[in-house]
Amino acid sequence: MKYYSLEKAKSRWEENYTWQPLIISVALIICLAITHKAYWITTAETNPEEIWTNKKLTKDGNNWTITFQEEVGDSLTFKGILKTAPKFEVYQNDSFVPGKYSEGEALVYSEDLIGKTMLNVSGIRILVNDDLSKKFFESEIITIKATLVSNISTFENNGEVITLEREGWVAETKDINLSSSKDNYFFTTELLILIVGTYLSFSRIRNVKKQTNLIWHLAKFELRQGITSSRMILLGAFFSLFIMGLGWLLGDLQNSDPESVFFVQNSQEALLQFCFFVFFVVSLAAIGVSVDAFHKERQSNTLNILLAKPINRESIVIGKAVGLSLVVGIPAFMAQVLGLILMINAGDTPTMGGIIAFFICGQLMIFTLICFQLCFAISARSGSDVVMYGLGMWLLFAVVWNLLIFAIAFAVGIDVTAEGIENDPEFQSIASHLGMLNPAYVYQFTVGLLTYRTIAIDFEGLPGWLILLAQALWPIICLRTATKLFKREVKG
Q1: Cα–Cα–Cα angle for 190, 442, 142, rounded to 5 degrees
Q2: What is the CA 154 to chain-centroid distance, rounded?
Q3: Which pLDDT tens digit goes with each residue over 248-298?
Q4: 425 SS3 class
Q5: Top-confidence residue, 95 or 394
Q6: Of residues 184, 161, 154, 147, the one with CA closest to residue 73
Q7: For 233-255, what is each residue's pLDDT tens digit?
Q8: Burial of 421 (0-12, 13-18, 19+ CB in 10 A)
Q9: What H or E segment, with its residue span, contains residue 285?
Q10: pTM to 2 decimal places
Q11: What is the domain class of 48-171 according to CATH?
Q12: d(Cα 56, Cα 59) in Å, to the nearest integer?
């Protein structure tokens, strides 16, 4: 039995000769990512949250003392994630009352705090002698060298004057660095491995230059057929108006009442919501243009004529996928441009990285949806089945997914009825990890990630490398599944 399994595995491996380099590269990336995570943990000099939670508050009458296990004057390099945006942690004249004790920050507010920043680095509070607004951002991974100091202050507690002898961590701006250089080495190596694996796989396609020309001819044919169809004209007009209207609305909501439930906090949040609505309507267009991708050709017997030509089975699927993606992608891109202009005119301008990702990843998302829908078009026996399967996919990814997240969170013991559940770290972690299984969420996360100046961030519980890996794997897996289904059908 064992011998048979090995032979079967070997046979499967040989069948995937073309994709072997890509499979190996993905396996190497996963191994490298695990090594990266282990390096990140082992090279962190300390566990920031553990040090903070192990501090002791001793109360002796009106004399309180806050101490850490470390000695005053000790300097440690902490490596962690910024839990809040520094711009919200800057002490201003109207942001605190001098003489008030803050339990969460373990200090007494005083006038000398004005202009300083209290950072939350993976749970530990570190006071920085500077305003860090626009210098560092929420979710970024940093290293910070802090020194343990002590001071004495007083505050009132229930009418009594309390003397607080406090120990706390203090740092300077020059002691803060954006991730380690080795993190960037890991990310760069992972990206290069994926590029090399993809290139080697495509180079294994027989007569690759000839096949590329055939793919492009087939793509142009699908583009001419699809872009001029009445179905696509109606769908294009619908989602173009929808996207442009949403763009203007999301821009306008940035200037609405902050207390309103429809208030959009900033341009980044508006862009992420824009991504979801683009997916919402574009996925319907992907269903519409893919209905007849193979069914119509089966009925007219043109599929057999196509198969008789010197073109690989993979090339047929790739050509159709590229052509149909252009049918949806060209009007979608134009609508995105106009919608973004309206959003910027009505609100603020997102970061350039976010804008570029919005367009490029939007096209990748469309290609992924087309490949996903082609799997149904190949497997289904009728056009109505293709539509039914496609609508099921759309309902799952665009409508039902949030309900699924809440159901799973409830099943693992999280109180989903609690106020502010969306900000609960455990709930966020579940939602974001499940989001890797949804192309809409992957699109959002990638755009959100690339609004930052580094991919060394923790994005709602997800590391940057995992988001980019998911963005790369979704179209590859969907395309590979479609080609495999088509080859199996032809063989049968």
Answers
A1: 55
A2: 46
A3: 988 888 877 666 656 677 788 888 889 999 999 999 888 888 877 777 777
A4: helix
A5: 394
A6: 147
A7: 888 888 889 999 988 988 888 87
A8: middle
A9: helix 267-290
A10: 0.77
A11: mainly beta
A12: 10
d(CA 58, CA 52) in angstroms, rounded, equals 15
Domain ranges of the chain: 48-171, 205-491
d(CA 237, CA 226): 14
Q: Which two tokens stand for residue 476?
A: 């590859």
Distance CA 439, CA 334 (A): 21
Q: Contact, 76 vs 145, CB < 8 A?
A: yes
Question: What single string gives the DSSP state of each residue in 230-279?
Answer: HHHHHHHHHHHHHHHHHHHHHHHGGGS-TTSTT---SHHHHHHHHHHHHH
Q: What band does 124 get if pLDDT is binned at 50, 70 and 90?
A: very high
In tens, the pLDDT along 403-447 reads 899 899 888 888 878 877 777 778 888 888 899 999 999 999 999
Q: In sequence order, what are the beta bridge partners of 154?
A: 163
Using left for φ > 0, alpha for ψ between -120 and 50, and beta otherwise, residue 227 falls in alpha
Q: Give CA–CA dist 186/465, Å, rounded.
A: 9
Instruction: List all residues 6 or more positions away from 76 whose beta carbon is below 8 Å from its beta carbon.
Output: 45, 46, 51, 70, 145, 146, 148
